[in-house]
Design goal:
Order of helices and strands: EHEEEHEEEEEEHEHEHH
Distance between the termini: 21 Å
Strand content: 25-35%
Radius of gyration: 16 Å
Shape: globular
Number of helices: 6
């Protein structure tokens, strides 16, 4: 199948259940990855982690004709930033934040969406650092959830935000000569956070990120 439509990669179905309904996505593939389509984009559910993300990107390169891709999902705040809570409505438009403050310990806002400027990994033998944009926040990728203060501190040495797929997408995009943008919504920031419940609670918020799904 050949298309120049937008390609969107998301890790988990519990992140995008509302997205699929709100933006009229219909399933077109079940294996090896679930793929959904609407009038303007393909959305591929990769699964959580580095290996599924890289494999899904490689598979998409063999299946679809695209130049640019987007990975959107939730992330944690590392120890390098202070996460603050501000009131919001889940169904308000969510504009992607690209600016980067010059504070010594900058703030991020829970449930806000950030463009990623650079991505690296905290795992052994992953020394590459990928520049994706001139603006935005730095991202460190972990092979496991950042459920402990120690893990969050390890991520803080490499980036302001932390996820489980970004490095794999950036690496695969470079190998295949594609451009990829990463957009991350902050869903957790401490050991006390229930990461899975926070992610589920942000389904509507994620679906209202401007310019991604339609």
């Amino acid at each position: 199948m050949s298309t120049k439509m937008k390609i969107i990669f998301c890790a988990a179905d519990f992140e995008v259940e509302y997205v699929l309904k709100m933006h009229n996505f219909k399933k077109i593939y079940s294996e090896p990855f679930e793929v959904y389509q609407n009038d303007s984009a393909f959305l591929i559910l990769t699964g959580i982690g580095l290996t599924p993300a890289a494999t899904a990107f490689a598979w998409a390169c063999s299946k679809f004709d695209f130049d640019e891709a987007i990975n959107i999902g939730t992330c944690g705040a590392s120890s390098a930033v202070e996460c603050v809570l501000e009131p919001f409505e889940h169904t308000d438009p969510v504009y992607v934040i690209s600016e980067k403050p010059e504070d010594k310990k900058p703030q991020v806002v829970f449930a806000s969406a950030y463009e990623i400027s650079e991505v690296c990994s905290i795992e052994p033998y992953t020394d590459k650092r990928f520049k994706l944009s001139d603006t935005g926040r730095t991202l460190a990728t972990s092979s496991r959830p950042v459920a402990s203060a120690k893990r969050r501190a390890m991520a803080g040495e490499k980036g302001e935000l932390v996820d489980m797929e970004g490095y794999a997408f950036a690496f695969a995009a470079q190998v295949f000569g594609k451009k990829i943008s990463l957009i991350k919504l902050v869903s957790d920031f401490s050991e006390e956070c229930n990461i899975n419940e926070n992610i589920k609670s942000l389904q509507k918020r994620l679906a209202h990120v401007v310019g991604v799904f339609s």
